[in-house]
Design a protein that fits this description.
Length: 239
């Protein structure tokens, strides 16, 4: 093992927030604007190419995830999942639907669509693929290609209860505003790790908590590889 695991990222101190960076403007976060962006991409450099190390010497394997952007009336919403707590890898974490690229898939797009259908029951009839983001290397030895897609509403999700505890949507505008991006630094014997988080509390949960006099509402702690790939998406859209 080349680096210490982070057992509870919420307890890792926040070093700062990136409120000094501009948010992606609303006009750039429409289906039309995203289609045009991927059709004629700018010259840009991803901020994160990977987690910066691996937990094992296992040979890297190709994987693909889908970034499903649901076209709601109030704006694009990113569909994310929370993994079940009993899984061996990334248990309980917020993630995109996706997984390993199998030989029969033939492309990362096919793999992302297959895994999405298997994990959350979202079929290709509702999905419009619009582009890819750069490969991201994870600590678990996966070379992950994020595939960005627009999703037409009207679908009904069917979650794989073994892998997925729940699916939820986050406004893309929230995620593309660096004021909501937190920087963490985890120090351990022999080194340190740094990562981003983008904690999100649904407005309905916040309102319910306030009505009940609760000091804390349900929070989705988006961090690690998911947050890093979203930060790369921010860099792509703001280049």
């Amino acid at each position: 093992m080349s680096r210490a695991p982070i057992l509870d990222p919420k307890l890792v101190p926040v070093q700062g927030r990136d409120a000094h960076l501009p948010a992606v403007p609303a006009q750039a976060l429409t289906p039309e604007a995203l289609r045009a962006r991927f059709a004629a991409p700018p010259i840009w450099t991803p901020e994160f190419q990977g987690d910066g190390g691996r937990f094992s010497d296992r040979a890297p394997a190709d994987a693909a995830v889908l970034m499903p952007l649901v076209m709601r009336e109030q704006g694009l919403q990113l569909l994310l999942t929370r993994r079940t707590d009993h899984l061996r890898s990334h248990a309980g974490q917020i993630s995109f639907p996706g997984g390993r690229v199998e030989p029969e898939d033939g492309s990362v797009e096919v793999a992302a669509l297959r895994e999405t259908a298997e994990e959350i029951g979202l079929g290709p009839a509702h999905i419009e693929l619009i582009g890819r983001l750069p490969v991201y290397a994870t600590v678990t030895s996966f070379q992950v290609t994020p595939v960005v897609a627009l999703v037409r509403p009207g679908f009904e999700l069917q979650l794989d209860a073994f892998e997925v505890a729940e699916a939820f949507e986050v406004p893309l505008a929230f995620l593309m505003d660096p004021a909501h991006h937190q920087r963490h630094r985890f120090v351990f014997e022999g080194g340190e790790r740094q990562f981003l988080s983008m904690p999100w509390t649904p407005p309905t949960a916040l309102a319910q908590g306030q009505a009940l006099g609760q000091s804390q509402a349900q929070e989705y702690f988006i961090w690690g590889a998911t947050a890093a790939m979203l930060r790369n998406f921010y860099r792509f859209l703001s280049a």
